[in-house]
Design brief:
alpha/beta; six-stranded mixed β-sheet; five-stranded antiparallel β-sheet; 16 helices; 14 strands
C-alpha cells in the first residue's frame, strides 16, 4: 500500500509505504498523527461504501415516512417493517414506475403489516371526513420523496460520506495550516487508487475504491480536552466495536477464524493482562481480573492496559481479524519500557499470524527499537518500514524514509538525554 499526502495539517509532502509494520518517529507536533488521520479517514470512508450508501438511503426514507406523518397509520414500531418490505421488494423498479404503482404497493404493504381490517377502520372511522383525501395526498408526497432519494447518484452519496468522514476525523481543519489551497491524500493498493482533494477545508475532488473490504481501526491517544465540547469520532467507532458480540448465526468458518485468531496471542495477553473486557447485560464494559476474581470499571483500570485490552477484545469478537488495518497513535503512552517491548511483540504477531497491516507513530526510542528487534526475532525484518519526521524551511514536515538507517531516529529521539 502506497500513501501520498500533500498540504494536510502540518504535512508538506510525504510518501509512505505500508506492507507489514510501518513506524513513523519524531517529536511532538511534527505531523505524525496527521498522517494516521488522513489514512484512516480515506480508508474508513471507502470501507463497504455500497453498504454505507444503502444505509444513507434508508435513513432518508425513514425520515420521509416520519415527516409525512405515517406513524398514525402504521405505528412507529411498524415503520421499520414497511421500509424492509419496500427495499426488499423484487419489483422495486415497477413499484416506482409511477405514483399509481407506488400507491398500490403502499396499501398492500400496510395491510400486510397491520391487517386489512385494521387499515380499513383507520381510514374510514376517522371523524374528519377529509381524512382519506389527506392520506392519499401524503402518500403522493412520500412517493415524490422516495423518487428523489432513489434517483440520487451513488457519486453524490460517496462525496457526502467522504466529506463527512474526513471533516469529522480532522474536526474540520483538514488543509495545511500554512497553505489553504489544495491538500490531498492518495492511497494505492490492489492496483487501484483512491484519493481526496480538499480546498479551504471543503472536499474538491475524490475517487473511491470499487469495493474496499478491509476493516480499518484507529487507536488514538485521547486527552480529556478532546471531549470538552464534542463527541470524539474515534472513540465512538471503538465503543461500537467493543459492544459487538459473536453472532449466534455466524458460519462455522467465521467462528473458527475468530477462535484461532484469539488463541494465537492468548498466552502473551494472559501474561500481561491476566484478565479481559466483559460486556454487562445493559452494555457497559468492565475489566474482569482473573487473578483477583473481581470486575472493575474502566476508570479504575491502569491506563497502560486499556489499548491492549481493546485489541484483545476486538480479536475475540471478530471486529479485528485477518487482513484488517490497524493504526495506532503513540502506543507507548502510559507504558513502562518493559510493557512497551511486550506490546511491540503483540503487534509483530498480529502482522505475522493474521496479516494485519499496521501504521504506528511514536516518539519512544524504546518502542521503535522493540518493533525492530521483534521483527528480526520473528524473521520478518523485511516487513518493517521506518520514517522520521523532518521540518523544512517553511516549518512544515516531511516523512523521510530511514528504513535502511534507523540510527537517525534514535539519534534524534535520544538527544534530550544529552542535556541530562
Amino acid at each position: 500500500m502506497k500513501i501520498r499526502i500533500k498540504n494536510i495539517g502540518l504535512i508538506s509532502n510525504s510518501d509512505i509505504e505500508m506492507n507489514g509494520i510501518t513506524v513513523i518517529g519524531g517529536f511532538n507536533n511534527s505531523g505524525k498523527s496527521t498522517i494516521l488521520k488522513a489514512v484512516y479517514g480515506l480508508l474508513n470512508a471507502n470501507y463497504d461504501i455500497k453498504g454505507k450508501i444503502d444505509l444513507e438511503r434508508k435513513k432518508s426514507m425513514d425520515q420521509a415516512l416520519n415527516e409525512n406523518g405515517f406513524s398514525f397509520l402504521l405505528g412507529n414500531e411498524d415503520l421499520e417493517n414497511f421500509l424492509e418490505l419496500f427495499l426488499n421488494n423484487q419489483d422495486l423498479e415497477k413499484t416506482m414506475i409511477d405514483y399509481e404503482a407506488f400507491f398500490s404497493f403502499f396499501q398492500k404493504a400496510a395491510e400486510e403489516i397491520k391487517g386489512e381490517y385494521e387499515i380499513h377502520n383507520i381510514l374510514f372511522e376517522e371523524n374528519n371526513e377529509n381524512f382519506e383525501e389527506h392520506y392519499v395526498r401524503q402518500i403522493k408526497k412520500l412517493y415524490q420523496a422516495y423518487e428523489k432519494i432513489l434517483k440520487t447518484k451513488e457519486k453524490d452519496y460517496q462525496k457526502f460520506i467522504l466529506n463527512r468522514t474526513i471533516r469529522n476525523v480532522f474536526s474540520g481543519d483538514v488543509n495545511s495550516r500554512k497553505y489553504q489551497e489544495i491538500g490531498s491524500t492518495e492511497i494505492e493498493t490492489g492496483g487501484e487508487i483512491s484519493f481526496f482533494h480538499f480546498n479551504h477545508n471543503q472536499l474538491d475532488d475524490f475517487k473511491m475504491f470499487s469495493d474496499f473490504r478491509k476493516n480499518v481501526w484507529y487507536l488514538n491517544t485521547s486527552h480529556f480536552m478532546d471531549f470538552a465540547d464534542r463527541r470524539n469520532f474515534f472513540s465512538q467507532e471503538l465503543r461500537n466495536a467493543l459492544q459487538v458480540d459473536m453472532d449466534m448465526d455466524m458460519l462455522f468458518e467465521e467462528y473458527n477464524d475468530i477462535e484461532e485468531n484469539s488463541e494465537k496471542l492468548q498466552s502473551i495477553f494472559t501474561d500481561i493482562l491476566h484478565g479481559k473486557l466483559k460486556k454487562r447485560e445493559f452494555g457497559s464494559i468492565l475489566y474482569r481480573d482473573d487473578l483477583l476474581e473481581a470486575s472493575f470499571h474502566m476508570e479504575n483500570v491502569a491506563s497502560g492496559m486499556k489499548n491492549l485490552l481493546v485489541v484483545q477484545r476486538m480479536l475475540e469478537n471478530g471486529t479485528l481479524g485477518k487482513s484488517s488495518i490497524l493504526l495506532i497513535d503513540e502506543p507507548e503512552t502510559n507504558l513502562h519500557p518493559d510493557w512497551q517491548i511486550k506490546y511491540a511483540k503483540i503487534l509483530v504477531l498480529l502482522n505475522r499470524e493474521l496479516g494485519i497491516q499496521l501504521l504506528v507513530n511514536s516518539h519512544s526510542p524504546y518502542f521503535i527499537r522493540a518493533i525492530e528487534v521483534a521483527l528480526a526475532d520473528y524473521d520478518r525484518k523485511d516487513m518493517g518500514r521506518y520514517y522520521l519526521m523532518e521540518s523544512n524551511e517553511e516549518g512544515m514536515y516531511v516523512a523521510k524514509d530511514v528504513t535502511g538507517c534507523t540510527e537517525e531516529i534514535y539519534k534524534l529521539l535520544y538527544k534530550p538525554l544529552d542535556y541530562l
